Amino acid sequence: MIEFAKHDETTAPEGSKPLIEKSKAAFGRLPGLHAVLAESPAAYEGYQVLHALFLQTSFTDEEKTVVWQTINVENRCHYCVPAHTGIAKAMKVDDAISQALRDETPLPTPKLEALRTFILQVMRGRGDVPEADLKAFLGAGFTRQNVLEVILGLSQKIISNYTNRFAQTPVDPVMQKFAWEPADKAA
Question: What is the pLDDT of residues 25-59, one digit of tens each?
């Protein structure tokens, strides 16, 4: 296995050092994903910018959680599912939503389920979603803006999910209590 370095402010390339400081200020620590991303200042900054932009979308905190976790679970990201479980708790998202996303069981509202369904259609169809399915998404109370915001969230999560796959980033100690395995592995 090819190992990826986990950088800190003493080992990171110059361009990543201010990004590390920004992460530490935001999280009170340097998340493992960020330590890996520090190898590439451009990838690290891209991830941070996409994350900040996604937080500014019109989605509620529950909907943001559905976007993030649907993508994380579909991509089987061992690191991001626990991390976003902790983030959802910090955002005061109902644990029932997090559990349904982690277990791939029905969400508590038809609107949230429509969001998850649409995200999976976008991912599995690589952006080719039949018009009837797009109309169903819009009919569930979402907008054209939300379509684009799903794509933004997907862009952010591709960086983290794929980085964690390549690097086999260990789950941060603070998130280990939310450890996760795909439903088909846990059975």
Answer: 999 999 999 999 999 999 999 999 999 999 999 99
Quote the Cα angle for 67-63-128, to 5°: 45
If one counts the domains in the chain, the total is: 2
- Burial (CB < 10 A; 0-12, 13-18, 19+), residue 158, is middle
How many Å apart are CA 186 and CA 165, to the nearest integer?
A: 19
Round to whole Å and give the CA distance between 163 and 4: 10
The stretch 121-132 carries a mean pLDDT of 98
Domain that holds residue 72: 59-161
Whether 184 is in a domain gets the answer no
* Burial environment of residue 57 by CB neighbours within 10 A (0 to 12, 13 to 18, 19 or more): middle
Residues 80 and 31 in one domain: no
